[in-house]
Amino acid sequence: MNQPHLREPRSKPMSALLLVALLTCGFAAAEEAVKKEALPSGEQVLDWVVEAAGGIEAAEKIKNRMSKGEIEFVGMGLKAPVTVYEAAPRNSYLLLESDAIGAVEEGTNGEIAWENSAIQGPRIKEGAEARRAVRESTFNRDFHWRDHYASAVTEAAEAVEEQMCWRVLVTPKEGRAETWWVEQKSRLVVKRSGTMDHVMGEIKFSAYQGDYREIDGLKIPFLVRTEVLQQQQKITLESVQHNVEIPEGTFDLPEEIQALATKAAE
Fold first, then answer.
1. Tens digits of residue pLDDT in 243-256
2. Could you tell me the pLDDT band of residue 172, with boundaries at 50, 70 and 90?
3. What is the pTM of this model?
4. Which range marks the domain in which residue 109 is found?
5. Is 234 part of a structural domain of the chain?
6. Which of 61, 145, 154, 200 gives 20 to 30 Å between its CA and that of 41?
7. How many domains does one find in the chain?
8. DSSP string covering the chain
């Protein structure tokens, strides 16, 4: 008995809406690829930052820096004078003096990172927190960014407080990646954000930089506003001096910190 002929099922025609959707997705992907291709590379953007900030030749002439200004804890009605000393290769010292909270100190001698305050007492930073502090204390670090960062990738062009910027993901050779926003017109960094390790745990931060002024051939931000743990701190500099005579012992470990270091070594 002959079997009836089974006809192959006919494929359903693609709907016009689906076809348009597929074509639209293809165009969108192509447009996005063109946009990314049009962006400058992360390496190029950071090289522009170096040039805009004064260039390596000018930076090499600077061996230390003393900055003085005021720190404001926004929303708390608290302001205090602050002094910061920095020197090559990886030395830093910050002193904040307030009648309300007492003195706050922190610094590095290139090997040990520490902080000391009337509220929390002396503490030596450890692990990732210490490594970050020492890396951040490297004098004029950003002028030699290839020595400290493994990669830089431009992710997008977007605005920060009405300033059109390149958003660049910057990954250090050791530690967590950060995002930098480089203003397209000035080619200076106007914002940095990321996550930092702290004794309290992982803490997200954003730091806005502005009011750049030229001091000895270098562009220095005189205003830095930091957002950490839903709190804002604003540092407004009044003066920046280079190649000054820094008081002897400024970068030495305070007695309380030295005692902790000795105890840890034992």
1. 999 999 999 999 99
2. very high
3. 0.83
4. 42-265
5. yes
6. 61
7. 1
8. -PPPPPPPPPPPPPPHHHHHHHHHHHHHHHHHHHHHHHSPPHHHHHHHHHHHTT-HHHHHT--EEEEEEEEEEETTTEEEEEEEEEETTTEEEEEEEETTTEEEEEEE-SS-EEEEETTTEEEE--HHHHHHHHHHTSTTGGGGGGGTEEEEEEEEEEEETTEEEEEEEEEESSS--EEEEEETTT--EEEEEEEEEETTEEEEEEEEEEEEEEETTEEEEEEEEEEETTEEEEEEEEEEEES--PPTTTTSPPHHHHHHHHHHH-
